[in-house]
User: Which sequence fits this backbone?
């Protein structure tokens, strides 16, 4: 049984919500929103690890190996690993630097949103390959 979609879809939605909450908390100076973003970020880190592990299991499936195009599969796999590492490091940064500068916090959150968007696009293209 392939569990990758079970973890990946909620993870993408949570990542968009978490990084958006960080941006809004820095723009409007809301510490309560930043605290909720931090709790969501902790859950996001766990879900990302599960999504990457289940993605490795899905990638070892012979059907996936035969149908996965290099153009979308290679960046999707390595961007998922990069997103996991980025999420863990940015979680540590946001956790330790609660009074960090607005500019750095917004840039980190925007960069996180761009990584998530790229992951979503490459994953969606792979999904189209399997349903076409």
Assistant:
């Amino acid at each position: 049984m392939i569990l990758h979609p079970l973890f990946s879809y909620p993870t993408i939605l949570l990542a968009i919500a978490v990084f958006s909450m960080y941006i809004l908390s820095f723009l409007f100076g809301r510490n309560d929103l930043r605290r909720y973003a931090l709790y969501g970020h902790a859950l996001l880190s766990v879900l990302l690890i599960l999504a990457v592990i289940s993605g490795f299991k899905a990638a070892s499936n012979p059907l996936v190996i035969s149908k996965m195009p290099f153009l979308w599969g290679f960046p999707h796999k390595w961007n998922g690993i990069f997103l996991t590492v980025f999420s863990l490091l940015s979680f540590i940064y946001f956790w330790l630097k609660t009074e960090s500068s607005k500019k750095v916090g917004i840039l980190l959150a925007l960069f996180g949103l761009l990584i998530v968007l790229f992951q979503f696009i490459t994953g969606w293209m792979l999904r189209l390959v399997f349903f076409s």
Summary: The radius of gyration is 16 Å. The chain has a mean pLDDT of 88. Helices lie at 4-28, 31-59, 62-67, 70-96, 102-131.
